[in-house]
Write a structure and sequence with these properties.
Helix content: 25-40%
Number of strands: 25
Strand order of the largest sheet: 12-11-10-9-13-14
Shape: globular
Number of helices: 29
Largest sheet: 6 strands, antiparallel
Strand content: 5-15%
Structural class: alpha+beta
Radius of gyration: 31 Å
Distance between the termini: 76 Å
């Protein structure tokens, strides 16, 4: 009888555990560690039997089945079509050398001599924990594979698996055990186990799904020399996607361009920067010199390694880059077209460039951050270093007439389209200096995953004024940034491996810092054959006093961010400083005020019980009665100096639908109205022919201005107004934050719209001919629709209330339509006027 499994607690960290294992499938509440109920499929858990009855598992597949294919057990690698036949043959050979032979030798050493001798998966797990040798690695990998495929029966030395004698453990538990033993084998240096561990992160098997960590382990497998790993990584990495995105541009060029014309290809991503150095890619045959090893060390001033006899490092996206450049070469030779490449730096105030944009909801749990490795060298920038970098870069200015000279071309939000000679941006340089100073002092933490899907990961650091600053960066794995850095290093131009150049782009900087701690450590890792002390000078030892964001935050420690998307407060992961939401017991907040401010968003994602329904703020605020039955909070009198809309004039109908400014009252009860256009024409009309804009404000604690409709509501279906994003900007201002930046405005919009819950059919409104697209869905509100059309037509500056009304109208209508309506440019005007 095989030994039973140990009851020792599994070593899967709680922050990495799959949500299905930690949260109730029915109500989404955090599960008690010892009090839960499995579904019959054992793939999900419920907090109680009554919750399971109220919320049946729709995807239940019945009692779990067991696979009995040893071939699939040993070679469970997804997307096989991307793996070439040669790579498959190499992988079979690697499997024989690193799995089958060490496993057989280790088992025979245990005294199992006969071919009919049997051992269980628990035997393999026990042998995996006995040491770190090749046999232990093979046992760990096979144990992980068998747990993943639920091959829990006995096995003979010839590979035959019995369907009896196994333990009937839940699927979630077997997945966590699979992850545990894949991780053990991968950390010991087993190449195939690294691939399997990467797919666990990708598929969420025994761990919280995380594409970046998946790509990290696949990249380590590539550096280890494991067969087929680069093909699997190319299927998941962003770099190949960005390179292939240029193919659509080439198709347009073939149809629209004439011989002799020139088109520039590029974008705000690392794929564009890689293609700028296309001459280096061709010279290096779309591969890279050997790296310093398989694992980042974070050290500097390492001795030069000649790396002779070592295999070259594959380039992520190398095949796609080669195919693209061959197409470009064909178009240049056959059609006479010309192409250049440009690198458009994203800039500090832009959200991370997204693969796709949609209304995906944010994660219910708090975003987790970690402290990157210690910066072993001080890379703070001085004035002399800036002048030296400018001199080096000026000699490499981009020249279309000389294709052998590579350089960069930048566009950023600080100076769109108007760069100095050489593409310098002083504002970007100031941002880079600020980031490098924070890195040297240990005042940086980086997120493990995205808060909003496809919006990028986050970095929090202290700026020059000591305030916490947050910015997003694209979800590149470390290998993608390393490949670009290695290509720039191979160009032989030291200005492109300068910290000042790299730190200007958060998409480029933070992936390197996450793995290496400093730029110099990353440079020496990707190009150990270069004497960097001679090329760019010896690295300066970092003697800066470390001042972490919160006390006790050391490299590798994990932190939790406040659940309010506009609060940057952090706590240690295992700390109890923040308080859970008492309703769902999942999202934590640093204060009651933050919880209250986040409630308009969190109430749409918070757990619900069987007796509750999902709230729709646009319908709930309207109430059951008509607009006339709802009490008014404000008197709709027209105050002098405010904007209004003219309507109902019969003698002068040309003025109907125009916006004007209320003036003094005249004899007979008429009001003087100065029109916003028609060169300030003044007309005298009755108050009954004027519409009030319908926006009012009141004061709250801490001088926080709050805008409301005439009913006293922030979001009102009768008034067709939604002030949620505007009030958030007002709060940011009165809290002393920079609420006029593009990042703050986009964050307000994206967090709010991604969390909206729409009723069936709300996205199917049609536009009426002659009405602006902002008026979509307002058939039941003719007065508000009329006011909005008037406000949309005004291009001259208006009062604060009128600008707020236009923004609140568009915000309300934009929730029901395509994303193009959600980007209300007038929100920036409101931010400037507050």
């Amino acid at each position: 009888m095989p030994p039973r499994r140990s009851n020792k607690k599994k070593k899967v960290k709680s922050r990495d555990r799959n949500i299905k294992a930690t949260c109730c499938q029915g109500c989404s509440k955090q599960l008690d560690k010892d009090n839960f109920v499995y579904c019959v499929c054992t793939q999900v858990r419920f907090c109680s039997s009554s919750c399971q009855d109220d919320h049946p598992h729709n995807g239940c597949t019945g009692p779990p089945e067991t696979e009995f294919s040893v071939t699939s057990m040993l070679q469970h690698l997804p997307e096989e079509e991307r793996v070439s036949r040669e790579a498959r043959n190499d992988r079979d050979a690697e499997n024989s050398e690193t799995v089958q032979k060490p496993l057989m030798a280790y088992i025979l050493s245990k005294g199992l001599q006969g071919i009919n001798s049997r051992f269980s998966v628990w035997d393999l797990a026990k042998w995996a924990d006995e040491g770190d040798g090749p046999g232990n690695q093979a046992c760990a990998f096979i144990a992980g594979s068998r747990f993943r495929h639920r091959l829990l029966g006995e096995t003979r030395l010839d590979g035959a698996v019995s369907n009896t004698g196994g333990d009937d453990i839940p699927v979630l538990e077997s997945q966590e055990l699979a992850f545990k033993y894949f991780e053990r084998a991968a950390k010991l240096g087993h190449g195939i186990a690294m691939q399997s561990l990467g797919t666990c992160f990708d598929d969420g098997v025994g761990v919280k799904s995380n594409r970046r960590r998946c790509n990290q382990w696949l990249w380590k497998s590539v550096l280890h020399g494991s067969a087929g790993a680069i093909e699997l990584l190319d299927c998941r990495a962003l770099l190949p996607l960005e390179i292939r995105a240029n193919e659509g541009t080439l198709q347009q060029a073939m149809q629209m361009m004439q011989p002799g014309q020139t088109m520039q290809l590029g974008g705000p991503n690392l794929g564009a920067l890689l293609l700028v150095f296309h001459d280096v890619l061709r010279r290096e045959n779309f591969s890279l010199p050997p790296f310093a090893g398989n694992w980042a060390t974070g050290t500097v001033n390492n001795p030069v390694q000649r790396m002779r006899g070592h295999p070259r490092t594959p380039l992520i996206g190398g095949k796609d880059a080669k195919e693209l450049l061959l197409k470009i070469q064909y178009l240049e030779m056959q059609l006479g077209l010309n192409f250049t490449f440009g690198y458009l730096r994203r800039g500090a105030a832009k959200q991370a460039t997204a693969q796709t944009r949609g209304a995906d909801p944010r994660a219910k749990d708090n975003q987790i951050f970690f402290a990157p490795p210690f910066a072993s060298c001080d890379e703070r920038v001085t004035d002399d270093m800036i002048n030296k970098w400018h001199d080096q870069s000026m000699r490499l200015a981009y020249s279309q007439s000389d294709s052998s000279r590579c350089a960069y071309f930048t566009i950023c939000v600080h100076n769109e389209g108007s760069q100095d000679k050489g593409g310098f941006c002083r504002a970007c340089e100031a941002d880079a200096i600020e980031r490098l100073d924070a890195i040297a002092r240990g005042q940086v933490v980086l997120s493990l995953d995205e808060d909003l899907p496809h919006r990028g990961q986050a970095a929090i650091f202290r700026d020059k004024n000591g305030a916490l600053k947050i910015e997003t960066w694209k979800t590149y794995a470390g290998g993608e940034a390393e490949c670009v850095l290695a290509t720039l290093a191979a160009s032989g131009m030291p200005s492109y491996v300068s910290p000042l150049f790299i730190a200007q782009d958060p998409n480029y900087l933070w992936p390197l810092i996450a793995d290496h701690g400093s730029i110099r450590a990353a440079v020496e890792f990707v190009a150990p054959h270069v004497d960097w002390n001679d090329k760019i000078g010896a690295a300066k030892e970092n003697e800066q006093e470390q001042d972490p964001i919160i006390p006790g935050c050391r490299p590798g420690k994990h932190l939790r961010k406040c659940g309010n998307g506009f609060c940057n407060n952090l706590e240690h992961y295992r700390s109890e400083t923040f308080q859970y939401c008492s309703r769902c017991n999942r999202r934590k907040y640093c204060s009651t005020e933050c919880q209250r401010d986040d409630w308009p968003i969190h109430k749409l994602e918070c757990s619900i019980t069987s007796s509750e329904t999902v709230a729709n703020p646009r319908l709930d605020d309207a109430g059951e009665g008509n607009a006339e039955d709802k009490p008014l909070k404000y008197d709709l009198k027209l105050d002098q100096g405010e904007d209004c809309v003219v309507h109902g004039l019969k003698g002068k109908p040309q003025y109907n639908g125009k916006v004007g400014v209320i003036g003094e009252s005249t004899e007979g009860g008429r009001v003087a109205v100065t029109l916003r256009y028609d060169e300030g024409n003044v007309i005298s009309i009755k108050p009954d022919n004027l519409y009030c804009i319908g926006v009012f404000c009141r004061k709250r604690k801490k001088k926080s201005r709050v805008f409301e409709c005439k009913h006293g509501l922030v979001c009102c279906a009768d008034c067709y107004l939604d002030f949620t994003t505007i009030n958030r900007l007002a709060k940011l201002k009165y809290d002393g934050q920079n609420m006029t930046s593009a990042a703050a405005i986009e964050q307000c919009e994206e967090i709010y719209f991604s969390s909206l819950s729409l009723e069936p059919g709300e996205s199917s409104f049609s536009l009426d001919e002659g009405w602006p697209m902002e008026c979509v869905g307002m058939k039941e509100h003719p007065e508000q629709r009329y006011i909005l059309r008037a406000l949309v037509k005004v291009e001259s500056p208006m009062s604060l209330h009128a600008t707020v009304a236009r923004t609140a109208f568009v915000t309300y209508g934009g929730a029901f339509t395509d994303l193009v309506l959600r980007g209300c440019t007038k929100l920036g005007d409101v931010a400037q006027m507050l």
